[in-house]
Q: What sequence folds into this?
């Protein structure tokens, strides 16, 4: 297997109400960073046949709230492939959002995804 710049993976995840730790159903920022780690793991498996180790995050920006009931689309893209390290770009987008005003289980697919969190990271592989 060979690491390839531009290789990307996208995962989708529902944000459960059990992850809403703050007023207004807001999920902790660390929740999204955990999802970034999951996407990085899949990317490393595809590119290197190894889960890799996430060594650092940089440039983390929380751009919009992530709420319980959201559906997130998380993408990790390899931006640099070194001998043992890989630089990744991360983006989390809200694609669906709960709509409790219409009913307790109502939700809506957003016409345009909302970019909620971006970051860069470095992984190390064997």
A:
């Amino acid at each position: 297997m060979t690491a390839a710049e531009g290789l990307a993976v996208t995962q989708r995840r529902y944000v459960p109400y059990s992850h809403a730790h703050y007023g207004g159903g807001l999920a902790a920022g660390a929740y999204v960073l955990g999802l970034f780690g999951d996407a990085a793991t899949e990317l490393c498996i595809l590119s290197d046949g190894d889960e890799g180790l996430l060594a650092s995050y940089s440039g983390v920006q929380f751009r919009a709230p992530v709420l319980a009931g959201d559906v997130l689309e998380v993408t990790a893209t390899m931006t640099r492939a070194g001998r043992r390290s890989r630089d990744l770009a991360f983006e989390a987008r809200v694609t669906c959002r709960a709509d409790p005003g219409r009913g307790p289980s109502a939700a809506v697919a957003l016409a345009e995804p909302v970019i909620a969190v971006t970051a860069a990271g470095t992984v190390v592989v064997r």
Summary: Residues 84 and 125 are 5 Å apart (CA to CA). The mean pLDDT is 95. The two ends are 12 Å apart (CA to CA).
